[in-house]
Amino acid sequence: MSRRATAARGARTIALAAVSATGALLLAACSPTTTTLNYDPSDGVGVSVLGEDDRDLRGINLMVVSAAEGEPGNVLGALANETSEDASFTLEAPGAAPVTLDVPAGGTVYLGTETGETVSLDTVGAAPGDYLDAVLSVGADSAEFQLPVLDGTLPEYADRLPSAAASPSATPNQ
Predict the structure, then answer these.
(1) Which of 8, 12, 23, 101 is the most buried (most CB within 10 A)?
(2) Where does the signal peptide begin and end (predicted)?
(3) Would you say 72 and 120 are in contact if contact means Cβ atoms under 8 Å apart?
(4) Rounded Cα gap, residues 170 and 150, in angstroms
């Protein structure tokens, strides 16, 4: 191969690499940075009581674990209060008595964990795998959302069932 052919081939390779790099940069600039997006990290859902832009009072990764429709259920997740005042959250679901929980200013209360609060619905009005039409409110502000209902099929939720917590084989909270 001649020197001229080798030089032309090298120039084409450099030009192709430059065009490819420019195209990759343009595509990257057009796509959102997904690592900065808020998302629900598990099977639960998030709900902002004061709207999507004002996330000062919110439910995080909320779900209910119940053996069957019409049975009691345990609520899992967290309630966050990023305001400067204490807040009382009320969770309402069809067929169940409302549940109220106080969250201190700047605090987060975890639900259904060994170190968190136990929050139970006396009756779950949907079968596992379905959703409850729920309302989370703080004072006059409220938000409607779909609360997922799970059962003990997944091992991580088996010991969160109300019957599992009451059984003699369950480890008591310390």
Answers:
(1) 101
(2) 1-28
(3) yes
(4) 19
14, β-bridge pairs: none
Other beta carbons less than 10 A from residue 125's beta carbon: 18
Location of structure tokens 């120039």? 11
* Token pair recorded at residue 132: 């409850």
| Residue 104 near residue 86 (C-beta atoms within 8 A) | yes
At 21, phi and psi to the nearest 5? -65, -40
End-to-end alpha carbon distance in the chain? 81
The two three-digit tokens of residue 168, written as one number: 């003699």
DSSP 171: P
Those residues whose C-beta lies under 8 Å from the C-beta of residue 114, and which sit 6 or more positions away, are: 173, 174
Does residue 65 contact residue 161 with C-beta atoms inside 8 Å?
yes
For the stretch 75-112, pLDDT in tens is 999 999 988 889 999 999 999 999 999 999 999 999 99
* Structure-token match 């409110």, residue found: 137
Instruction: Locate all alpha helices (DSSP H) within the chain, ordered by sequence.
Output: 3-30, 155-158, 162-166
Most distant CA atoms of the chain, gap in Å: 87
Model pTM? 0.72
